[in-house]
Amino acid sequence: MERRKVTFKLYPNAREAERLTAWVRLHCELYNAALQERIETYRKAGKSIGYYDQQNVLPEIKAARPEFVELGSHALQQTLRRLDLAFQAFFRRVKAGQTPGFPRFKASKRFSGFCYPDSAGWKLMQCGKRGGTLRMGSGKEAMSIRLRGQHRFGADAKPNDLTIIRKNGEWFASVTLRVPETACARERIDGQHRGVDFGLADWATFDNGETIANPRWTRNELPRLADLQRQRAKKKKGSVRYKRLTQQAARLHERIANLRREFVHQETSKLVRTCAVIATEELSPKNMSRSARGTVETPGRRVRQKAGLNREILSAAFGMAHQMLSYKAAEAGTRLHLANTRQLKPSQRCAKCWEIVPKTLAQRVHVCPHCGHTAPRDQNSASVVLIDAHTPGTGVAARPKPLARQRAKSKSLTRETPATTTQGV
Ligand SMILES: [Zn+2]
Hints:
The protein is an alpha+beta fold.
C-alpha cells in the first residue's frame, strides 16, 4: 500500500460555509485554551502538562460545551496534537541552541483548518468523473458539501484521513488515500535516455538541444502586484478597501502558485512518460537563492540584482520539479540520475573530451579549446550529466550519501582528476 494525497475544492452553500467557519473557530478556541492551560499550569505549579493530560479532559469539555460534540473526538484530539507538536518543535530548537518563538495564540481568522486523523466522522462520495460530495458530521445534523476534483487511483483507493483547509476565503479538502501499488503505476510510452539542465533563460534544456521555455509567472505578474500594493498603501489600514486590496493581492499570489504547480506537473509527467533514464544535476535552490547581503562588516555587492535573480530562481520551482520527478519516476519505472554538481561540474566540463573548461555565468556558449567541441552552454551540461548517468559506479545515484570526509577529499581532486572518470575505469 502506498499513500497519495489528493486535494478537492469544496463548494459549500452559505449555510454550510457558515458552519465550517464556526467549526474552525471552535477548533481554534480549543487550541488557544489548551495553550493557555499549559502556560498557567507551568506558572502556578511549576510543572508542565503534556498531550495526554489534555486529551483526558476532552470528555469534560464536551459535557460542558455540547457544541464541541459534533466536531468529532478524533478531530479534537488532532488539534491538541497540533499544539503538542508546536511545543515539541519549540523545545527541540531550544535544546539545539536556537532562539525559537514560543507557541502563539492564534486568531480564528488565521487558523487554517482542522483534521480528521482516520476515516471516522466523514465520508467521501465520488459521483461522476470530476464531482462528488463530502459528508461530515453524523445523523440529522450531517452536511453534504459539493466538491470538485478527481484522482487517478480508481475504486481500490481507500480514504485514510482528511484535512479541511481554508485559504483566501475558499475551502479545500485534502484527503490521504491508501492506494495499492499497482494502481500507482504510470504508463510509459517510450524508453528515451535524456539529460536535462534546469535554468532560467530556458526552464529546461535537453542534451539534444530541445528546450522548454521559462513561463516566468512571477515576473509577468509583478507589475500588477506592485500596483495593488501601491493602491493599498493609500488606504487607511484596516479599512474595508484596505482589506479588499489585501485579499486581491493574496489571490494573485495564489494564482501564480497554481499556474506554477500546474506547469511543473505537466512537464514532469511528460518527461517520465517518455524516458527510461533521466539525468540531471543535484540541486539546492536554498543555496542558489542565498542572499547577497553579506554581513555588517563585509556587506555584499549587487544585493538588489541578486534578490531579483533569487526571485526568479524560486519562481522557476526547481525544487518542486525535482521532487515531482523523483516520485513520478518511481511510479513509471524510470531511472532518475542525480549527478553530484560539485564533483562533476557539468557546466564547466566538455561533453566530448571531459576536460574542464572554465566559464563565467555570462558565457552562454561552450567552446572547447582542447577538442573544438562547440555547443550552447546548457545543452553541453545536459550532455555531461547524461554521460555521468551512463557511467556505472559513479554519480550520486550510486552513492546516495557520501561520507562527509569523502566529500571533502574528492573536492580537492576534482580540478584535474574527477571521481567520475577515475572510479569508472
Ligand atoms: Zn573538449
